[in-house]
Amino acid sequence: MAASARVPVHHAARSRFTRERLAQIYHTAFAKPGSERLFLSSLAFFLAFVVVRGITTSIHANVGPFHNVGLGGTHIHHLVWGIFLLLFCGLGLLALGGPGARWFHFSSRLLAVGFGVGAALTLDEFELWLHLADLYWAPQGSGSIRAVLLFGSLLSVAGWGWPLTRLLLKEVAHSFRGEPAPSARHVSPP
């Protein structure tokens, strides 16, 4: 192809990532059973962590509509809600049945998201269960962030893994070279 006939890089990159192509990459990357649920759990985990950190920071600074939750004068930490959510998701997975069960596909995705949120709420207060002391705003409370990053990294490697990363890198490389998109038969499943 002559240099003058090449599609501009910015146009090629923009036109390659259509909804259909991204859906094709998504389904190819998550062809193995369980990999999509790990991916959804990972996304929910990090999103919930960012949201809960934002909410607790606004409560601590007395900014915004959020306030501490208490019952009978006792402060209820968000790790309690995380534990309840983890227990509920575990029970749901036990009761769900196998892949042939009715509503399995939707329910297993929903429970994976719930697991990610519950794990984030719980691990965000890791120092509380490790030391049985509220160290959230103390310098020692940084262990909670390390626990979140460690578990989140493991969950992400399991969920996103090399197959999705490889497919996306391939797409980006083809886009910036102005090459045509590889067909679905050229994209090998993980």
Automatic annotation (TrEMBL):
Q: Which domain of life is it from?
A: Bacteria
- Regions crossing the membrane: 38-56, 76-96, 103-123, 143-162
- Which key words are in the record? Membrane, Transmembrane, Transmembrane helix
Q: What protein name applies here?
A: Uncharacterized protein
Native species of this protein?
Candidatus Dormiibacter inghamiae
